[in-house]
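quick one before i forget lol
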Amino acid sequence: MKYSLVVFTLLMYSGFWCALHAQKNSPQSPRLDVDTDTIEVGADPRGSTYVPMDSWIYPAMDRLYALGYADSAFFGIRPWTRLSIAHILERSAEQIETDSNNDEARAIYSAVLRELQLDLDQTSPQFQPKVRLESVYTDLRGIGGVPLRDSFHLGQSIINDYGRPYENGFNSYTGASTRAEAGRFSLYFRGEYQNAPTAAGYSPTLAAFLSNNIDGIPFATNPLQDTIPEGPIDSANFFRVVEASLSYHLAGHEFSFGKNDHWLAPDRGASMLWSNNAENIYAFQIDKVEPFRIPLLSRITGPFRYDFFVGSLKGHTYPNDPWVHMEKISFKPTKDLEFGFDRLIIWGGEGHEPITIHTFLKSFFSFQNVSAAEKSSSNDPGARFGTFDFSYRLPFLRHWITLYTDSLVHDDVSPISAPRRSGVHPGIYLSHLPAIEHVDLRLEGASTDTVSSSIDGGKFLYFETIQRQGPTNKGFLVGDWVGRQGKGGQAWLTYHLSPLEEVSLTYRNAKASNKFIPGGTTQNAYELFLRKRIMKDFEIQGMAQYESWKAPLYKLGAQSDFTTNVRITWFTP
């Protein structure tokens, strides 16, 4: 942790200085740097909004990369801004246009470029404000049977869904998104009205057991916990801000404040440190959105990117309202290999230590284990988690197979230095099958049940002695849906009708260890998904999922639920 933080700080400073120097000495008119070999940041000073992680653009760009293109893309730090995606495409333009053997790559390139065409328009005055209603949508969801919605203990039926409420019966989410740019400034907003029915929830006996025996939180003094869905659960009828951020672009960085998506791994099914499994938090962020090089150093590491944010977690009662900060560095030593390191700290909270500059710096520069007495004092450096991830297109098969993994450790420098104490989420992506051009296959495994047998009871990964509700926001884990001390995996078989349309079959399995939950838990989910465009500006998404699950601590015998989902989106022309 010590060296990763020192390297992050030095690279962040060096990157900012180099980018400022490059911008100072470059032409004042906006341009796109399309040099594939150097991958230097261009002098384009315009701000740009982020593309939400549930956009069709990310699976399209993922597929384009897996087919052997989009070499400058960093999949370990997402979301990307609209202009940064345009830069990735520009750097790949010549390669794609001259390759006559891949019509699908050209189709993906053209479709994404059309989506970003307004952002590339440089004929209007640079600082003229541009305001646009981006989309209006409604999402209708019906659930039959009792679903699971407890990622911190027994499991989730609906994953990576921004922590939206859902229960047995009819659920709906209706919203809109808008964006604006003016020179270096950009603004994005997406909000929706959310509705979910009432539910029985957990019994007081079960809630007290999970709190007292599993989490070690005295239930008598903490009866209301977002991480434990004790009943009766009231219906949800409220407006929620899904994303909202104001950004300023400077030297290839986006300085922003608000609610932004974060996906910090190359995996499709989960990010072990931070994903869209929970509601976004309000945070201040510094994101190096354009990859760049440092002389001499980048001869070894290649270009790199980094990201930092700090904000407050909600829904915690033990202690209340802690804060979190994250630092990530990703490197790309070759066009086929990317790897990165993360560090996440949860610190502070009412009744433990205040949120001040002193406690922030204490957590930021804490490099070693501390005593139990210091953990319980106002000098507690916080709950410290680290990750390592990589993505690699295989030699001679770079148009076919991509291997990748994400890994997580608690209170160690890195998963690399403590593999037996680490959780992992590996995967393999076959961009197309022999003789079936438009079909791809992706397989991912997941485990937070570490090899080290001394770590049981769910009290290691996603848990901490002081911050016992771990990396959760409003009750949902911000990381991997497999949860605490669990194992599982996902498989996707997808037929791509076009870059914007697909039909896919998904299987998901998750098991919580009986050393964590008495009797353990088992989930098996089967999903059919369709995305289809109607008249260019209307998108229809349909999903049907059947899930069977066992959680004897909650309900005896096998249980099942069935979910259908229809989402209709109008994208403004």
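fyi Residues 255 and 286 are 5 Å apart (CA to CA).
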